[in-house]
Amino acid sequence: xxxxxxxxxxxxxxxxxxxxxxxxxxxxxxxxxxxxxxxxxxxxxxxxxxxxxxxxxxxxxxxxxxxxxxxxxxxxxxxxxxxxxxxxxxxxxxxxxxxxxxxxxxxxxxxxxxxxxxxxxxxxxxxxxxxxxxxxxxxxxxxxxxxxxxxxxxxxxxxxxxxxxxxxxxxxxxxxxxxxxxxxxxxxxxxxxxxxxxxxxxxxxxxxxxxxxxxxxxxxxxxxxxxxxxxxxxxxxxxxxxxxxxxxxxxxxxxxxxxxxxxxxxxxxxxxxxxxxxxxxxxxxxxxxxxxxxxxxxxxxxxxxxxxxxxxxxxxxxxxxxxxxxxxxxxxxxxxxxxxxxxxxxxxxxxxxxxxxxxx
Length: 360
What we know:
Layout: E1 2-5, E2 11-14, H1 19-49, H2 55-80, H3 86-91, E3 93-97, H4 105-121, H5 125-133, H6 140-145, E4 147-151, H7 185-188, H8 198-209, H9 216-231, H10 244-266
Antiparallel strand pairs: 1-2, 3-4
Helix pairs in contact: 1-2, 2-4, 8-9, 8-10, 9-10
């Protein structure tokens, strides 16, 4: 186990992976890399044999394959899987930074470039020497990149349950607040939680969720500090002999239960609707043909009244014939004019009196 101080000044216990386990993971990765490289080279040689590639292209493909398999393989997998390759994943290992954080791309690249020299060219001899001398089992690539390898599969925790004579459950760190133990339920029901601020409750919940990741001395010190801060804001005080972790869990569990009850009271569930009345069952009746009703006779038509004859037309007056037409009025006699001149002769409409020749 290795003590790691995080940026929050919290000491973590991380199980460091030793050289035999790391060597086995490295052998698995090297076997995968060699298999991929052989497949690519075989395809390139087959294409060259069929005159599909020239010698320069074949050399470029082989060099690119070496770079991709030896450097690109660990860099890509450790960056995407946060510190794991296929071999490390199979054996439960992970690469982390010196502060316990995840591995970054720059660190993965430095480890891969150093691994080509110390693991491939020098057959792992420098890695063996530096791993035996380092307290964290670091090889040269880890020293240059500022990383080390830990066991991601933590040892099995105690079984979940209540220990005889204990105030708290045997397991914390599950990420959730566990129920209040029966011995503390009467006291927890009388708690006044109105003075408990949300940030302090969140800090206590984070402490319980990381309980097994903390170093034992730092875990006890942080638990006493959080329990003391909460005890000054919550009443009544806990019964004598209650450990801090059980006290914090009881306070947070009671706070959670009351919040859930308040939410249920403010949003009651709608009552279940009554089932609709079922219609009475329909009994099948035999079909009986019903004759259509008799047609109702129409009423007799009423005769129309007799038409009134029109009056006799009055014959028009007889037209007057031109023979019996009255004679034209005789023009009046011309009277002498005052100037002594004779009056003009009256106009005769006959053709002889005009200077125009009538048409034939």
